[in-house]
Amino acid sequence: xxxxxxxxxxxxxxxxxxxxxxxxxxxxxxxxxxxxxxxxxxxxxxxxxxxxxxxxxxxxxxxxxxxxxxxxxxxxxxxxxxxxxxxxxxxxxxxxxxxxxxxxxxxxxxxxxxxxxxxxxxxxxxxxxxxxxxxxxxxxxxxxxxxxxxxxxxxxxxxxxxxxxxxxxxxxxxxxxxxxxxxxxxxxxxxxxxxxxxxxxxxxxxxxxxxxxxxxxxxxxxxxxxxxxxxxxxxxxxxxxxxxxxxxxxxxxxxxxxxxxxxxxxxxxxxxxxxxxxxxxxxxxxxxxxxxxxxxxxxxxxxxxxxxxxxxxxxxxxxxxxxxxxxxxxxxxxxxxxxxxxxxxxxxxxxxxxxxxxxxxxxxxxxxxxxx
Length: 372
What we know:
Elements: E1 9-11, E2 14-16, E3 20-22, H1 37-47, E4 53-60, H2 77-93, E5 98-103, E6 132-133, E7 147-148, H3 151-170, E8 175-180, H4 185-190, H5 205-222, E9 229-234, H6 245-257, E10 263-266, H7 284-294, E11 298-301, H8 307-315, E12 321-324, H9 326-330, H10 334-342
Helix pairs in contact: 1-2, 3-5, 5-6, 6-7
């Protein structure tokens, strides 16, 4: 039997060669939102990984939407031009489809990069700014509270998501993932821990889902038919009385009804009170239930590190695809090794064809050899 991991996957009109997705991974290496040579190197190696889809890191829709001053953005001519340079280099040598994750960090914006501690940068600091969120509630004690978004602010944010999606389409990006996870703005609207609004965007589940769904609808409307749009979610806050799996299932149903191509299922990130029981595939049960109850194409992520583990998740019908982050940073050729282990084929750049091990004579697809 062929490996399920290496069967094609269709997201709307986008055909992926296999079901291994490169997850979006923040690099905190942009300058004024603009992609740098680091992105060229980082994305260049992942584009040659043999995965079915490469997803760009969380990309801010506005300067104030960045998690840190070093975040990648796509919100003006400079950021669009810089990202175009990186994408053109990748496309010259790698046929992998490219998606982008678009994001607003909300109250988790204006933060130091992780290797500088990740703390909030005060708004009066030269590289800091006042954050914005559904409600004026801080992420951690002692922080400067965010501004609660008013009607004009909501329109501005929604328009920012749309403008970034339009720029992504101009760059030829094949898919859009809207970031609704990990405690960033759209997740902040979903969770009752961070959303204490008393208007139509707060209170009931229907109201808390309203703004994220408005953003999804607005983005879907400007992305051409056939190009997939989906959302990444945190299926639980891992905090009592927080956002829950039951609520995530309802969100998934609403997204499916609106034409979402998939749902990318992660967890946590909203509260420092979270208690996450880490272990291999610890988030897969959330993806499994969402897939079973909604039928929406479901992407699983979280401590999926071994080919046999990934194959079992798909073969058992617990998810439709797997998304890898740290495992691919540690081993950028993870899909090659998975194909070898599972008796499948993978695409490799022609410059590397001669690296195919002797015991795996058909590992690389469509190879040819000749030398004088």
